[in-house]
Recover the amino acids of this structure.
């Protein structure tokens, strides 16, 4: 494999990992640009949308290369974005050769999640409980909100595993979590229903697409910004629809 | 107040774990969460509206995240995403949805507009901090004056 092909696959791997695990669009473009420049390429152009990456450059002996890849899956794992950022920083400063950097990126791609799944379940329970306290200031509702947040994330992971449809799993997770809250309400454990439902739903809030949408729009990547905003809106709508389905059981 | 700040720290750290932020950086996110909640709950007592308070708090989050990201050499979103979670207008969004379910459309629209205003205030705060940190390298000028 020649130097140009090696650089191309290295840059595309780095960009793909960043985009897949929740980096902003302009950061992906900037990272690929810097890495290709540091590898000695000229005339580097990159164009990144939410679902695909284009990269073109010219080698030192005047040959043009252009490639495009599709990024179908997107996950929520900011630690991998941080690691790729670190690798690209060391590569552009000349501390790593291109082979070492490619090996590190492959390791990052194969690595499991940063935290074990049970810790994420626990964290969504704690997040739901604390957020519901911040909204309503009532102590007896902390425990139901903890249970609700826990059930929401556990069911989200379960549905994703079997259904593999993002928006539908979010809808079903909201249904299950709010259903648990409704059951707790009917058994008399809940004092303040609003607070418990909000604590149940807060782990599903699309924080990564929302923040990235604002940042992309402000830095001029209009296509990606609008696309991410639409993703966040569809997620919010499916959560709201799931909540309504479960709550209507309470008001029957 | 102290109890709320402690709970906000726990909430922000928990969201750091949910978004899979590296372990050594989660605690900084918690500190930013404390600062957010302090401003967000202090300003309404001084007579500002909730929307104004959200805008100022979001600006503080974004500004300190940018500063900390420069210092720690990591992407800005690592600190910013868990930091703005306490500002999410969950209560209003929920009441608005509940009003629509109960066919109380006027009330639902009012609460929905309040939710959207607060979301817009958060976006404005984040955008303002981003503009400050990209002075001199910004995009999309109106007139081509440098020629």
């Amino acid at each position: 494999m020649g130097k140009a092909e090696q650089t191309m696959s290295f840059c595309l791997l780095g960009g793909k990992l960043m985009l897949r695990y929740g980096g902003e669009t302009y950061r992906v473009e900037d990272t690929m640009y810097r890495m290709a420049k540091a590898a000695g390429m000229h005339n580097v152009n990159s164009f990144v949308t939410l679902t695909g990456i284009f990269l073109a450059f010219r080698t030192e002996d005047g040959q043009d290369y252009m490639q495009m890849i599709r990024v179908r899956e997107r996950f929520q794992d900011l630690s991998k974005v941080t690691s790729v950022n670190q690798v690209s920083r060391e590569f552009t400063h000349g501390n790593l050769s291109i082979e070492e950097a490619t090996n590190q990126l492959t390791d990052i791609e194969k690595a499991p999640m940063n935290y074990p799944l049970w810790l994420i379940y626990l964290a969504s329970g704690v997040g739901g409980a604390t957020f519901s306290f911040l909204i309503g200031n009532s102590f007896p509702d902390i425990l139901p909100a903890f249970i609700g947040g826990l059930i929401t994330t556990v069911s989200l992971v379960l549905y994703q595993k079997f259904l593999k449809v993002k928006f539908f799993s979010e809808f079903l997770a909201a249904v299950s979590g709010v259903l648990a809250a409704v059951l707790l309400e009917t058994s008399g454990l809940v004092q303040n229903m609003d607070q418990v439902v909000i604590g149940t739903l807060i782990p599903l809030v699309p924080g990564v697409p929302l923040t990235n949408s604002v940042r992309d729009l402000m830095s001029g990547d209009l296509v990606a910004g609008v696309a991410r905003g639409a993703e966040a809106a569809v997620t919010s709508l499916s959560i709201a629809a799931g909540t309504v389905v479960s709550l209507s059981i309470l008001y029957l | 107040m102290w109890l709320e700040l402690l709970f906000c720290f726990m909430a922000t750290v928990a969201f750091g774990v949910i978004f899979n932020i590296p372990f050594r950086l989660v605690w900084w996110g918690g500190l930013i969460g404390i600062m957010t909640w302090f401003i967000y709950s202090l300003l309404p007592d001084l007579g500002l509206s909730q929307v104004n308070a959200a805008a100022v708090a979001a600006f503080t989050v974004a500004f300190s995240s940018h500063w900390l990201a420069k210092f720690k050499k990591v992407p800005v979103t690592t600190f910013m995403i868990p930091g703005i979670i306490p500002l999410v207008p969950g209560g209003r969004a929920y009441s608005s949805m509940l009003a629509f379910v109960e066919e109380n459309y006027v009330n639902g629209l009012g609460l929905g507009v309040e939710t959207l205003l607060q979301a817009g205030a958060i976006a404005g705060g984040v955008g303002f901090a981003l503009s400050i940190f990209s002075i001199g390298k910004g995009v999309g000028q109106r007139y081509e004056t440098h020629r």
In short: Residues 58 and 99 of chain A are 20 Å apart (CA to CA). Chain A touches chain B through 54 residues (CB under 8 Å).
